[in-house]
Amino acid sequence: MKAMILAAGVGSRLRPLTESLPKALVVVEGKPMLELVIRRLMDAGVDQIIINVFHLADRIVDFVNSKKSFGIPIEFSRETELLDTGGGLKKASYFFDDGRPFFLHNVDVFSDIDLKMMYDFHVQFRALATLAAESDRKSGRYLLFDEKLRLCGWESVSEKRQKWAGQPRPKAERLAFCGIHVISPEIFPKMSETGIFSINKTYLRLAGQGEHIQPFLCDGYYWRDIGAAGKLEEVRGSRPQAQ
Questions:
Q1: 18 part of a folded domain
Q2: Which of 45, 87, 178, 217 has its CA 20 to 30 A from that of 118?
Q3: Per-residue model confidence (pLDDT) at position 227
């Protein structure tokens, strides 16, 4: 099983910390976030990983090499400019050549979501993509799902706007995305977007064409992102630190 970890970001909301330290190497529970994510993916059955890198890329590469790649093959997709989630995944598409669904995981997500269960759920329903999401968390942005729990839109609360995959659904369910995907490789020939683009753009277009993009509900699991200083300190303060 393969996975991609999104670790290219500059971590602007964590400055000045990330001026000299990539977000992927920010420490939580005594270990860099990248290590925590790698080990959780490995526990779920992942045995090959690709990591996209841009900001302070050599620091990330050196760290992985110092850990002897955690005993599994790990590759790096170096970006000369930030390609966003969709562009970054498309650049690394060559890596996913085994015909099996794979994980796409943000490096700044700290959670105990059952990744193996999420993967099995994806396979069971033969989805093109399965997105970890919560119904009981407030967020500035939401994914919108119809009565069959299929992706039908996206909403920005702060910008007071919505994007729909087809006709607007006034009764759509709003779910907060958790930064973890399971994706079937059949998505790659369907990705007509090029350059710098969000994977959400692809998801919405494909959902509008009838593709099965579903949520994996994560209510009850612990989930935080450490992408901003306040959120990082919240995680460090709400979880026991490893010694």
A1: yes
A2: 87
A3: 67
100, pLDDT greater than 60: yes
Q: What is the pLDDT of residue 237?
A: 65
AA identity, residue 237: G
Convert the pLDDT of each residue in 38-96 to its tens digit.
999 999 999 999 999 999 999 999 999 999 999 999 999 999 999 999 999 999 999 99
Residue 243 inside a domain? The answer is no
pLDDT level of residue 241 (50, 70, 90 thresholds): very low
CATH number, domain with residue 18: 3.90.550.10
Residue type, 91: K
Please check whether residue 53 lies inside any domain of the structure: yes
Domain count of the chain? 1
Cβ contact 218:121 at 8 Å:
no
Residue 169 structural domain: 2-238
Residue 213 is assigned to a structural domain of this protein:
yes
